[in-house]
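Structural prep section.
Before we set up the soaks we want a predicted structure of the protein with adenosine-5'-diphosphate in place, mainly to decide which crystallisation condition to try first. Input record follows.
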Amino acid sequence: MTNLPELFGCMAFNESVMRERLPKGAYSTLKNAIEKGGRMDLTTANIVANAMKDWATEKGATHYTHWFQPLTGITAEKHDSFIAPCGDGGVIMEFSGKELIKGEPDASSFPSGGLRATFEARGYTAWDPTSYAFIKDGVLCIPTAFCSYGGEALDTKTPLLRSMEALNLQAKRILKLFGTECERVSATAGLEQEYFIVDRNTYNQRKDLIYTGRTLLGARPPKGQEMDDHYFGSIKIRVSSFMKELNEELWKLGVLAKTEHNEAAPAQHELAPIFSTANIAIDHNQLTMEIMRKVAKRHDLTCLLHEKPFEGVNGSGKHNNWALSTDDGVNLLEPGDTPEENAQFLLIICAVLKAVDDYQDLLRISVASCGNDHRLGGDEAPPAIVSVYLGDELQAILDSIKSGTVYDRAEKKSLTVGVDVLPPFPRDTTDRNRTSPFAFTGNKFEFRMLGSSMSASASTTFINTIVAETFRQFADRLEKAEDFTSELNTLIRETITEHERIIFNGNGYDESWTKEAAKRGLSNYPSTADCLPHLMDEKNVRLFERHGVYSETELRARRDILLESYCKQINIEAQVMLEMIHRDIVPAVISFEKTLADTINAKAQIKIESKAETKLLGSVSGLLEQLYDNCQALEEAAAGVKLKNCDLQSMAVYCHESVIPAMNALRVVADKLECLVSKDLWPYPSYGRLLYRV
Ligand code: ADP
Ligand code: MG
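Run finished without errors. Recording the tokens verbatim:
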């Protein structure tokens, strides 16, 4: 590797490249577009496009693509080469401002949730200048938003950018009340990515992993993660060389990959970047997932991003660290030194508290997927119930504000917000509560319900919007106040009292919390099928429309896409499982039975008893009967799944209530058989091989 600072960002058309390659005027117009959302005229766009093309071709690129994030949750690209005929039979390399700003991919191959039926089939992509263009595999990638001709968002980036704008607008109203000046407030995100690494050859022997990303069958290995020895173990040589190359690839693209370590489960790892502005962090996370998969292949490994690849082993999440930052880089979730700054900080904390309480359902919905259902509420992941953890110090401060009691015992003083300086509270001291789905971790909130394979777009869009809404309500009230300080104190006290039910400092994995949460009236939607219908609750539709983030039509389209993909996913899993049982497992068990029966017969001829063989044959053949019955039950359940002309909501409930239990029942028997049947005959590599032989 050449030196890192030189390598870093060498494949990104970043700030320094722009400064170096653009004429002054074009550079400042582009800067203005990036920082303040200013307009870009065609002349400037032409200059920028040309500079991008020159830069990219010098680095060996031959094509460009509008890189976008359709509602499939992954990224899409359609490559065009730079060539243009030049009349003498040859070509020149061209890239115009028009091609940079707008593209017209055929939208019909991407899910639109019915949006396309009412609008034109073609969609268009529009350049997002805030996220740097980059070169990947010889292609200049332009980050873009993807919309229908009617302007409906067909992607995850458009609503995200709209929510960033809504948040900026409302946050600035709040800051103004405290005399804090700034041009722009942005959400920041740090996305910690968990994943599994397995041997590629072993992976290729498992249909379930290939088709569904998770093992549908598999008996627990004799050693699971009970010894907790993986986390601190040294990184295996193959994995470490994978990580080294992964880091280099990411650094080249300007992704701030920072920490890497083993995770709790065997074969599980994590990569955490340094946080950045939310939409850039999300683009980078999408790239990270793509490159993880690619680099793993080069090392004869496979990267599993599924939320729950292995039953009985920890699943993978993506922690979404969220905070607010001014354009001067001041983190608004960091307590300040003056009474004004502290009052502002406390008000913002209260706004987040209220937002999370008012819209618990939305946060749950933002992480709803078939894969994540297997993880949430398991004993290693936050429950499906949303709650906030504040940490001892902040909790004590809020408690004292609420009750008007003395906070600082040394000085015997009770706190008046906006007048007194907050007693300094140490950051990051508490033994952080790892079981909380939404934890304040000193200067940011960490949302831990997101699944590893999911785009962080929806959750960030939702968090931005619900906080924008609370800011709006607070600003409406405080802007009218005659005595600002006294109104502020009342507002903060009221908010704490009204919303403290959302605060939970105990063990979120404990069963008693489910009961306690029900008593507090918190919502609990264990599955995707339970929570998705609430996306269209009137209060949610009103919220998103008010802030211009999603129209009702866009929201409905999204719900339908989510429901449909949930049903499709379960249906695929059921079909794969049936095929594995019928074509591979049943024949293997029969062969094993035959070996046993032959042995028993042979031994009988020479008058030797076969007690063990007979007993084993009895157990195996009993289980095979059960397997067959359960297989039939699953076949019947799966036959009930219809994906066309049906009510998607009831179909999702059907999948959840009929298909999944049938799969579970079938799996139990298959896993018992795996423990009895000869390893040489069993058609699939075991959990032990997958998890321990990298
Ligand atoms: P842990 O694993 O203990 O949760 P890490 O330090 O591994 O903590 O990850 C914390 C993540 O939070 C990192 O990605 C970090 O960049 C990010 N982060 C730190 N400050 C902010 C902030 N102000 N806004 C968003 N993310 C942040
Ligand atoms: Mg974390």
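Observations: Residues 188-190, 192, 259, 272-275, 319, 321-323, 331, 443-444, 446 surround adenosine-5'-diphosphate (ligand 1) (CB under 6 Å).
Flagged for discussion at group meeting.
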